[in-house]
Amino acid sequence: xxxxxxVIESQNFISHQFxxxxxxxxxxxxxxxxxxxxxxxxxxxxKQLRNTxxxxxxxxxxxxxxxxxxxxxxxxxxxxxxQKIATKINASIEIYKPSQVYRVLLKSHQDTGERNQTxxxxxxxxxxxxxxxxxxxxxxxxxxxxxxxxxxxxSQIFLGERLTSSTKHLLWMARTTKExxxxxxAWVKHGKVFMRKSDTSKPLQIAQISD
Length: 211
What we know:
By secondary structure, the protein is an alpha+beta fold.
């Protein structure tokens, strides 16, 4: 009889231990779920913060024209360079008179495709509309080279809107992965990145890399 009682006591003890461990596991599961929810909330807040910062940064550069392909020369006159570009593409310097012209140093980042490039020239115009009009005048003119404005180099000069660092990285990712993801085009307009699968398909705005 005592042996039977000991077996029952052992079974009860094991059962109690099992129930206790199960409660601990359930608690850990709940705690783990709570941690994951907290992490998700932090990631979402971080995403919203980055989007807000990107929008604020864009407001400071949305009227800026970025000029690439102009060789760097010591003691260069950037205002004169911009005036030569404007004259060449038949843009009135009085209408598109910049408030500031300067070169911006590039960081050698692999994630933006800007390695070993000549620093671009930034031209701050009166408005985003003025910037867009100037770019369209260049498109109507066609190919423009450094030789067209007095340099010996025949490197092409490209005009475009200035991008925030976040948008620049997103555009670079879109362009480097578009073929693998079945897209034909990737471009940026007014600080927003778009992709399109064909000439007739609808453009898709890409807000983040996961898109």
